[in-house]
Amino acid sequence: MNGNSLIKKLFEKFYFNFYLFLLIFTPLLFVTNTGELFEFPKTFFIYYAALLCLMVYVIDMISNKTWISRPSLTVLFYVAVFILTTITSMHFYTSLWGYYTRFNDGLMSVLAFFALYYVAKNKLTSTDISRLSNAILLPIIPVALYGIAQHFGLFEGRVVFGEKSDRVYSTFGQPNWLAQYLVMLLPVVLYKTFYAIKPWFWYTILILGYTCLWFTFSMSGFAGFGASFAIGLFYLFRQLGFKRVRVKIGFLLIYILMLAVLFPGILEKRLYDIRQDLFGMSVSPVYASSENLNANPSKYKLSDAGFIRKYAWVGTWNLIKSSSKNFILGTGPETYPYSFQPFRPVELNYSSEWSYLFNKPHNYYLEIWAESGLLGLVAYGILFFKVSKNQTIDKRLGLVGFAITNIFGWPVVATTLVFWFWLIEVEEEQNA
């Protein structure tokens, strides 16, 4: 083997091992010495990883005179719209870097993911991508084990939030973020229990992952998983027949029921909140009084999440339609905390979050429209359609769950990384 062949081989090994480390390590990363312990380090890890990967790729391209393939027009359109809405932003630097403490979903993070996508598109082989497609599921094991341990308080006194938690967050910092990650990947694991080698290994991961998902007590997570699981069962029954799936699915359904009975957790309180949202909430006129009139956050047993989202969405819609510029181009990526305040409905003063600064509308589609306009929403919709259109059924189910959780939340670093990797998979299949 001559010198050039050896160097080329080293570069090939670097790319696979780099993406393997990136996909496995990113969901597990958190620190204990920053203001935001979970999303902030993940975001900057993506920044540094993208920079390193791009530098190696440029050196490789120069030394080996590598042929460069063009990114898809869909991806270029999405990035171009993001750049345009950043340029027209009400606060350029926030749109460039992202809102402070997390920084994900600013232009820099989009460019970082684009760089990782572009290098992978040019340097990863179909065999590499197939192996990475399995590896991306492995972090479920430590993530789920840590989350389950949190529920039972096994790490009390040894980690930052080690006290026994009503809702677990594992390495993600927030139960809904953890739930979104699991909802996105568990349908893929479900299919591997029927189609992959060593199905019981994947079945164990499925049980661990669902147990952790249950302990998040995330309503958006349950909605996303429930929809994808129901559709998945329909396809499995149609493809394999009832006899081939009944044992594994039957045991899984029994296990799900047992978890609900043995560990109801905060669901009773959540159902109380929903009942209050539907039947018990009314805002009465306010009169002068000698009594101390304060918003009463203890009125609900846990959180009036439905009421809060309702009026956050109303205010966001008022922001969107407040001007033609906002409607078409938005106020700029990540500027929602600044732009929402003039449109904040007074009804939110009667919620448990009456004193909060709203930095998200808790609906990713409204968030895109408010920050990047209708143009940005269309660009994201086209990109999402591209990822899901030519995808395998198991990953389509994951995307269904992902899309549902985004109705009530927003993507985080780990789920965004999965989304971009699945985009790479789709384009590799199309080019094969």
TrEMBL record:
Main location, first listed in the record? membrane
Q: Name one GO cellular component term.
A: membrane
Q: Where in the cell is it found?
A: Membrane
Per its UniProt record, what InterPro entries does this chain match? O-antigen_ligase-rel_domated, WaaL-like
Q: Does the keyword Metal-binding feature in the UniProt annotation?
A: no
UniProt keywords (A-Z) are: Membrane, Transmembrane, Transmembrane helix
User: What parts of the sequence cross the membrane?
Assistant: 14-32, 44-63, 75-93, 99-120, 132-155, 175-193, 200-216, 222-237, 249-267, 364-385, 397-423
Keyword RNA-binding set for record:
no
Q: How does it sit in the membrane?
A: Multi-pass membrane protein
What protein name does the entry list? O-antigen ligase-related domain-containing protein
**Source species, please?**
candidate division WWE3 bacterium
